[in-house]
Amino acid sequence: MIHNLFPSSVLIEDVDLTDEQINDLSVAINTVFKAHEAITGCHKISGEDSMPLFTKENTNTFPILKKLRHIFIDGFLKLAESDPDNILTKKSIELMMDNHAGRLPIMKTNDYKGLHSHPGTVAYGIFYLTDVNNDKDGGKLILRDPSFHISPGYRRKMKHEIETKRGRLVIAPSYVWHEVTPYYGVEDRITVVSNLSFVPEDLIEN
Question: Terminus-to-terminus CA distance in the chain, angstroms?
């Protein structure tokens, strides 16, 4: 009997948001981004030491960011519940989200993101604010099978390409390697990324 033992589940979902909500998100995120850029002189704000997005100050100023945070929480929960051995609850995911309050890896012309995973976390989520013609302008997300480094032989398709579509949410386990191809568009490619950062006490129910 053949057993398919180690598949990787990934959530790819187009979130139903109105044009007004997308516009409100764009205004909020661009305001936060421009404030960071003015202070630091740098648009690279995706690192662990960068300015977080879902802070109390930002969500109080822009309530639409609370909705986006819940979109991530619901996405992480859907992925978790697809595993029958899952131990995560909505409460634990909310607590874990507090450890990594969202980042803005905004891509400008000629930016790219090399192949990487998210060690030290449980999962990562990506939400797109803009449409991009990836065939023309690049900036395509590519997910890689975690066993991509092995010799050819008994292995499945090694990559899955995801188009950059406004309102699209991608949630994947942290061990799924991924990259973003060089971006050649003129307009900024705006995304929000959030990790589930694991802290043992987060999983303890009070």
Answer: 43
Residue type, 150: I
- pLDDT digit string (tens) for 68-96? 999 999 999 999 999 888 888 999 898 88
CA distance 14 to 163: 11
Band of pLDDT at residue 5, cut at 50, 70 and 90: low
- Asked if residue 179 lies in contact with residue 55, where contact means CB atoms within 8 angstroms, the answer is no
The CATH topology of domain 13-199 is Jelly Rolls (2.60.120)
Alpha-carbon span 142 to 173, nearest angstrom: 14
Buried b / exposed e along 122-155 (16+ C-beta atoms within 10 A): bbbbbbbbbebebeebbbbbbbbbeeeeeeeeee
| Domain edges within the chain | 13-199
Quick check: 51 and 36 in contact, CB under 8 A?
yes
List alpha helices for 46-183, DSSP H. 56-61, 64-81, 90-97, 134-137
pLDDT at 117: 87
